[in-house]
Amino acid sequence: MSRGSRRATVSAPANIALVKYWGARDLKRALPYHPSISMTLEVCRTVTTVELAPALETDEIWFAAGAAAHPEPAPEAFARRVRAHLDRVWTRLQGVSCGRPAFRVATRNTFPAAAGLASSASGFAALAAAACRTLGVDAGARELSVLARLSGSGSAARSVFGGFVEWPAEGAPAAGAAPAEENPDAPAAQLAPAAAWRLSCVVAIVEDGPKEVSSREGHRLAPTSPHFARRLELVPERLETVRRAIRDRDLDLLGPVLERDAVELHAVAMTSEPPIFYWRPPTLEVLSEVRRLRGLGTGAWATMDAGANVHVLCTPEDEPRVAAALEAVPGVRDVLRDRVGDGPRDETLDLLAEADR
Ligand code: DP6
């Protein structure tokens, strides 16, 4: 894609958090209480084509519901989020909110939307990157991280890097300490590239509809849980362990911390006021199968975002065995085989051309 071309397609990856972002100290700006660390995925992506369309009066937004689906005019709620994000990207890039030209946008996920597979992270990262391309702005990854997060999806800040990524909580007070000076930009940064540690991620899909309670609502309610304050005390050491596990490529060190952190997120959610239950009965079946696999000597470790689906990390050698075991669990509708991947990339695919056909 040449710089400043009027149409560009970018794909951006989903990511799975190893230490979760849960609870926003500033919901509007998506600023977390504590840092989070994630692994970028390769197969689960959002592909987005953006065209600068100054002749149009309003944006035109298309959405293709599945990997092979034809783009259709997007539902209004979805289109509104896209337009709002384009407003924010424009305002940050130009320094003024007025004069934004209209855009045509077409987007497609390679995985079920809003089912705990971070479709907003990959979606807003892809939209920000494709909009920059179309406007001829050569945004580096740090700036893209900020642009993606302006959407309100904090995890989008991590989806602009490949490999293993940390999103800091600049300005957040450590447990019991006075607030430090705030950096409202707070971009994420890469801890290690994908090539440094070839981990697999097998996803057991037990639910493929949208979740009943958004992550945003979960972030808002998290501090109402009596366990939230304790989580803030525990996270710093956990982050340190995960950084060390990534540096040393040590799955036995990462695994227990990964599972504990995920269960803790859900414990906080379940004890929020009002409580939020993301798990479904098959979620527990999958967790039990993962423990069974470990008992048989397979290094498989589970984590869940704000949804019922379970991501299981393992080595590429164990991946076929883990996938086969998860497929056999009652209530599992599908199993996706993913792995650590690189960040956003330009694509030759043109989703607007597909929409026009
Ligand atoms: C549970 O506010 O980024 O996935 O916009 O729905 O992607 P979405 O959520 P966001 O919160 C993510 C919460 C999480 C944990 C994580 O990814 O760190």
Features:
357 residues, alpha+beta, eight-stranded mixed β-sheet, four-stranded antiparallel β-sheet, 14 strands, globular, binds ligand DP6
Could you please describe the fold and organization of this structure?
- The chain is of the alpha+beta class and 357 residues long.
- The protein is built from nine helices and 14 strands.
- The strands form three sheets. Strands 1, 4, 5, 6, 7, 8, 9 and 14 form an eight-stranded mixed sheet that branches.
- Helix 1 (76-94) crosses helix 2, helix 2 packs across helix 3 (141-149) and helix 5 (228-248) runs antiparallel to helix 6 (251-270).
- The longest helix is centred in the middle third of the chain and has 21 residues, at 228-248.
- The two termini are 22 Å apart.
- The model has no long low-confidence stretch (mean pLDDT 93).
- Bound molecules: ligand DP6.
- Ligand DP6 binds at residues 17, 20-22, 36, 118, 120-121, 153-155, 215-216, 219, 305-306.
- Residues 17, 20-22, 36, 118, 120-121, 153-155, 215-216, 219, 305-306 line the site of ligand DP6.
Uncertain parts: none
Largest sheet: 8 strands, mixed
Sum up the overall morphology in one term: globular
Helix content: 25-40%
- How confident is the prediction overall: mean pLDDT? 93
List cofactors, ions and other ligands: ligand DP6
Radius of gyration: 20 Å
Spell out the helices and strands N to C.
EEEEEEHEHHEEEHHHHEEHEEH
The computed structural class is alpha+beta
**Hey, roughly how much beta strand do the residues contain?**
15-25%
What's the helix count? 9
- Total beta-strand segments: 14
- Please give the alpha-carbon distance between the first and last residues: 22 Å
